[in-house]
Amino acid sequence: MRTHKNLTPAAQIATGLEARAHASDHAALRGWLRMLSCTRQIETAIRTRLRQRFGITLARFDFLAQLHRHPQGLAMSEISNRLMVTGGNVTGLTDELAIEGLVARKPNPADARGTLVKLTAKGKRSFEAMAHEHEQWVVTLFSALPLNGQAQLHGLLGTLRIGVETQSLLKQDLQ
Amino acid sequence: MRTHKNLTPAAQIATGLEARAHASDHAALRGWLRMLSCTRQIETAIRTRLRQRFGITLARFDFLAQLHRHPQGLAMSEISNRLMVTGGNVTGLTDELAIEGLVARKPNPADARGTLVKLTAKGKRSFEAMAHEHEQWVVTLFSALPLNGQAQLHGLLGTLRIGVETQSLLKQDLQ
DNA sequence: TATTTTTACTTGACAACTAAAGTAAATACG
DNA sequence: CGTATTTACTTTAGTTGTCAAGTAAAAATA
């Protein structure tokens, strides 16, 4: 079989979003565009592998990962927070995964408005079959950075995130 | 007017994707989830501002940015590479932006298969009206990191990206 | 207690994106 | 030259995602 005509983005050289950055631009803009470009490349690589190896989408994998981390079940609003997507999206994904039998909605005894979403036994098995391999991919993708470089990156991003969060919350109050 | 019921992700505290990371996980996985979480937060913040201030989507803004950087026009495949999205997506975005009068398809004198996409005068004006403010948002969002931190981040991501690219290309050959 | 506000989720419309297959021009090569 | 392959783009179908508005239960408040 020959190669596809439409290469997925991961297989392209990332001339990249970064081309947007000129020497005159602020360091922040250049940094942001590089960060975005890196993230998209890694995301695409993982998405492609998940589909090829397991026939699952990245969105569903991430959803299952959250539930696996919280075996007691999560409110849909919690899933929405954790995945950083809107509630409507969570409703849809839950519907799909429930049809596939990987998750189930349970009434929330503590709050009649909402439901708890839990992994089914099948969902748990499916996720666990994928999780280890997924982690290996990530380790490999990051292997160009030595461990102390990874630690530095982690620290810098931690600082960055605090600033971003603060601003997002401020914004919300003002508006 | 009162606040919305469905907060956009930017306005939520990012308990986050990172919750996926346990102490036992590899540094790479924790780093990746933090990177993803940061990127999504920033992206959401910018997306929201672009919509509120200018009534434009992030995808269209990025598209215009590429064309602005290349006034001579770009082949659609080039845009696809640079934005790291599939060709079909570029076709759709080009159609939309052409209808809005912001871009135009020109025949490519060098290659009859394809077309060059260029900014129209209106598109150029629109983009330039937004670009400066956009950059200020990014500068502000990154302001929690001192300049040398931003430089470090830039360097680390540069190394990371080279590794990821190499692996993506390898993958492609093997397959 | 009655009313208002917030929270939890759903719905509907639509934008953005992928994947896969199709068309046609350009290029490579035997 | 002629055939095969690659490249450039389009199309279709389907998933993922946003936004805004709607419903109903819970919490806050008067």
Please provide a written account of the structure:
2 copies of one chain form a homodimer. With 175 residues, the first copy, chain A, is mainly alpha-helical. The first copy, chain A, contains 6 helices and 3 strands. In chain A, strands 1-3-2 form a 3-stranded antiparallel sheet. In chain A, a hairpin with a 7-residue loop joins β2 (103-107) and β3. In chain A, α1 (27-54) crosses α5 (121-141) and α3 packs across α4. The longest helix of chain A is centred in the N-terminal third of the chain and has 28 residues, at 27-54. The N and C termini of chain A lie far apart (56 Å). The interface between A and B is large, with 83 and 83 residues. Chain A binds a DNA duplex (30 and 30 nucleotides) through residues 2-6, 8-9, 47, 51, 57-60, 75-77, 80, 85-93, 96, 108, 111-115.
SSE blueprint and pairings:
The structure is a homodimer of 175-residue chains.
Chain A: H1 27-54, H2 58-69, E1 74-75, H3 76-83, H4 87-99, E2 103-107, E3 115-119, H5 121-141, H6 147-174
Antiparallel strand pairs in A: 1-3, 2-3
The structure holds a DNA duplex (30 and 30 nucleotides).
User: What's the story with the biggest beta sheet of chain A?
Assistant: 3 strands, antiparallel
Distance between the first and last residues' Cα of chain A: 56 Å
Please give the number of β-strands of chain A: 3
Percent helix of chain A, as a range, is 55-70%
Largest interface: A-B, 83 and 83 residues
Structural class of chain A: mainly alpha
Task: State the assembly state of the protein chains.
Answer: homodimer
Give Rg of chain A in angstroms: 19 Å
Low-confidence stretches of chain A: 1-14
Give the DSSP E fraction of chain A (strand runs of 2 or more residues). Answer: 5-15%
Could you say which overall geometry of chain A the principal axes of the C-alpha atoms support? globular
Q: List SSEs of chain A in N-to-C order.
A: HHEHHEEHH
